[in-house]
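Sanity check. The docking grid for 3-methyl-2-oxobutanoic acid depends on where the pocket ends up, so I'm generating a full predicted complex first rather than guessing from homology. Inputs follow.
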Amino acid sequence: MTTVSLNTLAKRKREGRKFASLTAYDALFAELISTSGVEVILVGDSLGMVLQGHDSTLPVALDDMVYHMNCVRRGNRGSMIMADLPFMSYASESQSLESAASLMRCGAHVVKLEGGAWLAESTRLLSERGIPVCAHMGLTPQSINRLGGYRVQGRQPDQASTMIEEAQILQDSGAALLLLECVPVDLATAITGKLEIPVIGIGAGPHTDGQIMVMHDLLGVTPPRIRVPKFVKNFLRESTDGIAGAFRAYADAVHEERFPEMEHSFT
Ligand code: KIV
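Predicted complex below; grid placement will be based on this.
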């Protein structure tokens, strides 16, 4: 695979061709994923739940992200690497700059921050200094205590119009990508159509520009204490070539617009 950049994703959006993303946390899986046709690897703070055994992403430290980011960079073979800024590592603008710089120094190509319009100034500061930002909206797991549970976001008309406005503010502030998690199909479709930047979805229906999944969910090894979300599909079950085959099947299904289906989406 050739090296994927933000330009690749912007071109995909212009051409109406979908792209695939998957989480990875170590070198071996990063290599398998990047050679399977997946364009974007996310070093997600979901590692707190799938690797570290926590009940949420809140305990994940910036040092944890740096460690896993370094592992993934060594295995990557040309995918774009996005890395999560963990809980409370971007509570102020100067802190967001310091934290993002730590991940960029390890080889991240984009950093992801959870939140809405309150991130506008940090987004501007980072992007003006050469750090591409992916804004993560909808269900933002670092705010689970405020949200009151892992629930679909934007179902009420006022919530939906706020999300549309805030997505536009973040694009205007320089965000390079937007990720929407657990958002009704119609709302995700409207935001994707309104924004110029590529929009990646998880539990956001089939019409976003890209799709993302947590690697463990795709392999059917969601930790037993976590309820398997509706938007998950186990690609290993149908693979005739083990784990590598499951990654290729996922990438192909996204590229060919066979995944996600409506059964994986919220209406
Ligand atoms: O940390 C993560 O894996 C994520 C995905 C759920 C998008 O943010």
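Relevant for the grid: The chain has a mean pLDDT of 97.
Also worth noting: The longest strand covers residues 133-138.
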